[in-house]
């Protein structure tokens, strides 16, 4: 019998320029571009491109950049111009300033780099992706001649425009499969073979970098007759980090809240919210359910902090340290369902943390599952003011009531 250590991971998120560089390195056609971290560098990059038109893009991880607003007063994180000097003026209002979009926190995210790229006209936009699909135990190509838009909407309104093709993981992508997908995407004449070649290169990239998804939207053609990957989102298999050290070294954690980075050091997943009841759980689904039930009972969650599966006593201690350091937190609700998690380890961690950190906020604990009776004994004999709960509903009511009493 072998025990398995489960280590929760944060998803790796790359900036647009990083994804484009990985693609270019694997022979995929992208726009020519440079990256700049000062207005002067942006001007030099624009001059070096010698392009008819230039697109300047602020580099942050959040979507909706085009409609975003900078705290410098500049509107839009994406700008087109034919004049390199305009690139310099725009970059001055981007670099070092916060960009707020519908996906960023209220105050926005500081832009440290901009991408200066050759702007290409798109005569036609299509959608192409390769993803790992559990249903067929391997990679699947998904394509649509309707690109540049929300693909989920296309799937609902025009399902006949979504084409899927399974790829045999052992044999790889066949020439006729790539060509058929190019036809389904509506590429014609010489562009058909060019699109098929790009599809094969994207599949090779998908395999080589241990991706779980490579999504290109739009996968477009230019009036000059070139097939180009204009925008791409790449998801990676976190379990392959040991093979993909260079790629994982690109992870820019500077956009995270400092508390998120601190939590990640101990393999904890932390997401800050704006309430006052801290949620300490194991598993993302349980975290969301806990947040919901607190809200249903009239409370507001302050965060969710997910322990994951492979729990150690030290993690519980660090989790409490993070939660008690947050001035917003007026009560802590621990909701653990022990399957692979041993409840006694959680109980020992809780008592140690409470004693050493001199916990000053009410603590409600609901434990269920493996070794729960031993865990309840540890908590009850600790002499600490811990409120036990029989189930999730009871726990939420007690946590909300403890804040109301204050």
From TrEMBL:
Keywords: GTP-binding, Ligase, Magnesium, Metal-binding, Mitochondrion, Nucleotide-binding, Tricarboxylic acid cycle
GO biological process: succinyl-CoA metabolic process; tricarboxylic acid cycle
Keyword GTP-binding attached: yes
The keyword Metal-binding appears for this protein: yes
Biological pathway: Carbohydrate metabolism; tricarboxylic acid cycle; succinate from succinyl-CoA (ligase route): step 1/1
Cofactor(s) annotated in UniProt: Mg(2+)
One Pfam family linked to the record: Ligase_CoA
GO CC terms, sorted: mitochondrion; succinate-CoA ligase complex
PROSITE patterns, alphabetized: SUCCINYL_COA_LIG_3 (PS01217)
Domain of life the protein comes from: Eukaryota
ATP-grasp fold succinyl-CoA synthetase-type domain location: 13-219
Enzyme Commission number(s) from the entry: 6.2.1.-
Domain ATP-citrate synthase/succinyl-CoA ligase C-terminal per the UniProt entry, residue ranges: 281-400
MF terms in GO: ATP binding; GTP binding; metal ion binding; succinate-CoA ligase (GDP-forming) activity
Record's catalysed reaction(s): GTP + succinate + CoA = succinyl-CoA + GDP + phosphate
Enzyme class: ligase
Matching NCBIfam families: PRK00696.1, sucCoAbeta
Biological role: GTP-specific succinyl-CoA synthetase functions in the citric acid cycle (TCA), coupling the hydrolysis of succinyl-CoA to the synthesis of GTP and thus represents the only step of substrate-level phosphorylation in the TCA. The beta subunit provides nucleotide specificity of the enzyme and binds the substrate succinate, while the binding sites for coenzyme A and phosphate are found in the alpha subunit.
Subunit field text: Heterodimer of an alpha and a beta subunit. The beta subunit determines specificity for GTP.
HAMAP family linked: Succ_CoA_beta (MF_00558), Succ_CoA_betaG_euk (MF_03221)
Family membership noted in the UniProt record: Belongs to the succinate/malate CoA ligase beta subunit family.
Protein name: Succinate-CoA ligase subunit beta
Organism: Sylvia atricapilla (blackcap)
Phylogenetic classification of the source organism: Eukaryota, Metazoa, Chordata, Craniata, Vertebrata
Gene: Suclg2
